[in-house]
Write a structure and sequence with these properties.
Distance between the termini: 24 Å
Number of domains: 2
Largest sheet: 2 strands, antiparallel
Strand order of the largest sheet: 1-2
Number of helices: 18
């Protein structure tokens, strides 16, 4: 197979925040220090070498990019201060921008002010069109339908179209990543579905990737969150990360339950149902989990508690801010609903909550939130190689 060299790869990576890894002379300290490196995943040295010699396809097809949890031990051990840890983070940003087809991710990562403006405009458009609704989630609003002349049917289908575009962009990115990684790893369709044994092995790898690693945080807990100086349990990186993930998934699950109850004719959304109500109880616990995790992430980055939090980009803060606003406004809505007669401010909070939550989903393939799509795929290939 012909190898294509991209002579501009290293320069392009620098636009995404990569340090000047031209100082790296491949001594191997970073790989020796990395607690996740083994015979099947010698990183970050291999990733840096790909960038230095312009092997773009090999870099984008590397499952190691997403297996890294950013502990920064490699950066601390680098004798030339090439900052391999930050290079890995920048390479992930570059990969997200390379996978998705629209070019929006590249703008968000390489032009942060314009990316912030786009984020604000998306939220403003979503909130503005929400004003066409006279009654949002049971929070009775004054006459604020500024765009009442726009048919609700049109608004509905515009929303469906925007969500479909997001799904297609995300699917496109995942397919490109799967093809690139499978090509590099030599994994064929027969290797995952060609026989009963192959299916069994693939199913086991999927469980390792989703259940054991993505949700259970096994290697994060065991290998990447205790060196060189363990932090107090309440701010350990694996725990903060896990609570954030579990909280978001719990809120998503509560929304699905609410929707299912609505289909059954049981009113739940926007009403003061008892706190023990399944969707309300799950949503409350998950919301607390999300707020704890996101708040600790933000404080840690602001105060630079550890080497892993020493560098933050606009895309990092954008995701954390959107998640934090979503959680905070969700609790504010809950307070408004239990206040007897819902106050007028509840309408505006609901408007902000829905607009930001919708933006989170619409922007998923283009922001750091895309990790939820790509990391499980990479972990699947990693687990599949272990089971070979």
């Amino acid at each position: 197979m012909t190898t294509v060299v991209d002579v501009d790869l290293l320069a392009d990576l620098k636009k995404f925040g990569a340090a000047d890894v031209s100082a790296c002379f491949s001594c191997g300290n970073c790989t020796a220090t990395c607690l996740l490196s083994d015979n099947d995943a010698t990183f970050p040295r291999r990733m840096i070498r790909y960038a230095q010699v312009g092997l773009k396809d090999e870099l984008l097809g590397s499952k190691e990019l997403w297996a890294c949890y950013g502990c920064a031990l490699c950066t601390q051990s680098c004798p030339t201060k090439a900052d391999p840890g930050e290079f890995m983070a920048a390479a992930r940003r570059y990969a997200i921008a390379s996978y998705e087809p629209t070019g929006l991710a590249r703008v968000i990562y390489t032009r942060p002010r314009l990316g912030l403006l786009i984020g604000v405009l998306v939220a403003a458009v979503l909130a503005t069109f929400m004003l066409t609704q006279a009654d949002l989630g049971g929070l009775h609003a004054p006459t604020l339908a500024l765009f009442q002349f726009v048919p609700n049917e049109l608004i509905h289908w515009l929303g469906i179209g925007a969500m479909a575009a997001m799904v297609l962009a995300g699917a496109w990115g995942v397919v490109r990543m799967v093809r690139a990684t499978a090509r590099r790893e030599g994994v064929t369709w027969e290797a995952v579905a060609g026989s009963r044994e192959a299916v069994r092995r693939a199913a086991g790898a999927a469980w390792d990737a989703l259940g054991v690693e993505s949700l259970g945080q096994r290697r994060f807990r065991q290998d990447c969150d205790g060196e060189p100086e363990p932090e107090p349990l309440w701010r350990r990186r694996w725990l903060v990360h896990a609570l954030t993930v579990w909280g978001f998934l719990g809120l998503f699950g509560a929304t699905i339950i609410d929707y299912g109850l609505e289909l059954l004719g049981v009113k739940a959304t926007g009403t003061a149902v008892p706190i023990w109500y399944p969707s309300r109880l799950l949503g409350t616990v998950a919301g607390l989990s999300l707020m704890y995790g996101v708040t600790l992430f933000m404080v840690g980055r602001w105060r630079r508690w550890s080497a892993t939090q020493a560098t933050s980009t606009g895309s990092d803060w954008m995701l954390l801010t959107l998640l934090w606003i979503t959680g905070l406004t969700g609790f504010a809505i809950e307070v408004a609903l239990y206040a007897g007669q819902p106050p007028a401010w509840g309408y505006w909070v609901f408007l902000l909550h829905v607009a930001v939550a919708m933006e989170l989903m619409l922007m998923l393939p283009f922001t750091k939130f895309a990790h939820v799509m790509y990391r499980p795929v990479a972990l699947f290939f990693y687990a599949l190689a272990k089971r070979a």
